[in-house]
Amino acid sequence: MELRQLRYFVMLAETGNFHRAAERLNMSQPPLTVAIRKLEDELGAALFVRSARGVTLTAAGRASLEMARATLAQADRFREAAREGAAGERGRLRVGFVGSATFELLPRLITEYRRRYPAVELVLEEATSMEIARKLAAGELDVGLVRLPLLQIAAVDTQVIDPDELYAALPEGSPFADAESVELSDLAAQPFILQSRISVLHSITLTACQKAGFMPIVAQEAAQLSAVLALVRSGLGVALVPSRAAGSVPQGVRLVHLASPVPVLTGVALPRDTPSPLAQNFAAIASNSD
User: Fold this and answer.
1) 113, 181, 229, 283: which could join 257 in a potential S-S bond, CB 3.0 to 4.6 Å?
2) HTH lysR-type domain location, by residue (predicted)?
3) For residues 126 and 213, what is the distance between their CA atoms, to the nearest angstrom?
């Protein structure tokens, strides 16, 4: 049994006439007659009563008509799903993201992506940049928002999408908390809260301090940026965080501009080998976001 046979059956049932059904199907009548007869032979039951005035459904035809229509509709949905999948408009997209992306970038991208691709299921996973790169290469994630540059060589392609700069995160009791800007070297005597060593921000902070002429006194390390800010709030030390964190800074913490800017970059990462259409669509939105 083929879908075209079901389509012929439904059209003939709706028109009640071989000639009219053949016209609507853009075919000649003899092949339609042969196809219907072959379908009846396969089913072992007559679907139509034939007469000089046309055809009417038999009991078998009436019982199977709605099922035939449903089968054709399901086949159409299958074709549409396949087309949408190939175009990256339907499916399941696994997105890895660094914690700092949650402040502003990720919500903005997710809103726009859902608007354009409402049939895609999003699965979000927070991780470090290198964990995201490893999972992309291993096929465990489809696309990632990472901090650049990556500290290790990874089989991923990256593109900068969100240039930013670091600010000093200070407890409100700090003598620099109300300043418009501060030199990083002025914080040399302060204990520092750093993200864990596998974080790109860890490396960027150390490099910035070295360029400012000192090695920071590390009081504590934390895996997530939110934890870093919480530790700053408790008075354990100061930290360098992206300016995008300004909207999520807890009470008791001040962000102060660095007089000598320290750039920090967020990028979108794709697996180097055959990224999915879903991932490519997400990356395109990320690359064109403001």
Assistant:
1) 181
2) 1-58
3) 34
